[in-house]
Design goal:
Blueprint (H helix, E strand, L loop, with lengths): L3 H6 L4 H9 L7 H14 L6 E7 L5 E9 L3 E8 L12 H8 L3 E4 L9 H8 L4 E6 L10 E6 L7 H35 L1 H8 L8 E13 L2 H7 L2 H21 L3 E6 L2 E7 L6 H28 L7 E16 L4 E6 L1 H16 L3 E4 H6 L5 E6 L8 E5 L3
Parallel strand pairs: 10-12
Antiparallel strand pairs: 1-2, 1-6, 2-3, 4-5, 5-6, 7-9, 7-10, 8-9, 10-11, 12-14, 13-14
Helix pairs in contact: 6-7, 9-10
């Protein structure tokens, strides 16, 4: 661990290092790790009043996450959205200064220079007297984390305090780096595979052929006339339309416990876990709730499209329930985590049939048999690849 020998020689920080090596490194939540570390450091005699650290993330919505700790008040996690680095909150701040110089920055808060950054005046107004920020050296490439400390002790930090804080940042660095890599792994798998599948992959379910059979409610949805839209619309406009539509699908599924398995062009294959048959009626009802919400949200979006002179968009949803095999398929070095089985095919065929029958939602007889919400039968119809005609159901309204 960085500077471990010199830290061990420092009697004041040795109890902190002992905790970090034995227990602190096992804390999986970085904000709780920071809380415990700061409390122990203050108890050791270092006069920390406020601490902040920002860690770069690979995330579709956030560029970084910050942990802010105040003595006597605890900690809070502070997501930093994309765009923060171009905002006044960052430009000209001590954080930016540390990154640009790759060196320690220190300010006496009781004697700030003219035009100091607003964050320094805020610390001064809160009772802070001294401020120091350090670059945190990590082995990975990317934006350098910055750890900042403020004290409210009248005389500020001593030289010994600053040296110990520098050592403390070095002590934290390996834990911070582990957290960054763990967060990247979880975010990438969540973003590209979904939370449930991502957890299984990170848990070791990664070998080709690994899988298990589960019972699930299957969802397959598709945008109407996507081929025609592709021909008529400019690529940028089509991409915006597709992303807006898929966001509506994702929001509806998430609100009712569904999870997207994959995007197939404009199509969405999703599922609602239903391994316990006791909860199957609730799960099917949730799928209906998600489908209703999607249709309603699309209608609302179409009102805005009409006001802008654009054609409305439509979609179809197929719902089925049954056993599927949930696992890895692919080549030895390139895998896909998916669901396969007749139930998946049924859901896709039901979605295709919505176009012929002119309804937005179709469910199978198996789905209707376990749902407690009333559905309307549309009689028996042929599904491609299914030997016998099957009864299909739609919403009563």
């Amino acid at each position: 661990m960085a500077d471990a020998a010199s830290v061990a020689e420092n009697a004041r920080l040795k109890p902190v290092l002992d905790w970090l090596l034995a227990e602190g490194r096992l804390e999986r939540h970085f904000d709780r790790f920071v809380d415990q570390l700061m409390k122990r450091t203050v108890a050791a005699g270092v006069p920390i009043w406020r601490f902040y650290i920002g860690l770069e993330l690979v995330h579709p919505q956030m560029v970084a996450t910050g942990v802010l700790w105040r003595r006597g008040e605890g900690y809070e996690e502070m997501p930093r959205l994309h765009g923060i680095l171009e905002s006044p909150a960052y430009i000209g701040s001590p954080m930016q200064e540390v990154r640009q110089k790759a060196a320690t920055v220190r300010y006496c808060l009781t004697d700030l220079p003219e035009r100091a950054h607003s964050v320094l005046y805020e610390l001064q107004a809160g009772g802070g007297t001294d401020y120091v920020a350090f670059p945190m050296r990590l082995g990975r490439s990317g934006s350098m984390p910055v750890a900042s400390f403020a004290t409210d002790r009248a005389s500020g930090f001593t030289d010994e305090d600053v040296a110990d804080l520098r050592r403390l940042v070095d002590m934290m660095a390996p834990i911070a780096e582990i957290y960054v890599y763990r967060n990247i792994a979880a975010t990438v798998t969540d973003t590209y595979l979904g939370h449930i599948v991502g957890e299984q992959i990170l848990g070791g379910l990664i070998k080709r052929g690994d899988g298990r059979e589960i019972n699930a409610v299957l969802w397959f949805s598709d945008l109407r006339d996507f081929t025609g839209l592709n021909e008529r619309m400019a690529a940028a406009d089509l991409l915006e339309l597709l992303n807006n539509y898929l966001q509506l699908v994702g929001d509806a599924l998430k609100a009712y416990g569904g999870e997207i398995l994959k995007f197939i062009g404009d199509g969405v294959m999703a599922y609602f876990p239903a391994e316990d048959a006791l909860f199957l009626p609730m799960v099917t009802n949730n799928a209906i709730g998600a489908a209703r919400r999607l249709i309603d949200d699309i209608e609302s979006a179409n009102e805005a499209r009409a006001a802008g002179g654009h054609d409305p968009v439509r979609c179809g949803v197929g719902l089925h329930v049954g056993p599927v095999t949930f696992g890895n398929i692919g080549t030895e070095d390139r895998l896909d985590f998916t669901v396969i089985g007749p139930a998946v095919n049924r859901a896709a065929r039901l979605e295709s049939l919505t176009k012929e029958l002119g309804v937005p939602i179709l469910a199978s007889a198996e789905f209707n048999a376990v749902s407690t919400l009333p559905l309307k039968s549309l009689g028996k119809h042929s599904l491609r690849g299914v030997p016998e005609p099957v009864e299909v159901f739609t919403l009563p309204d």
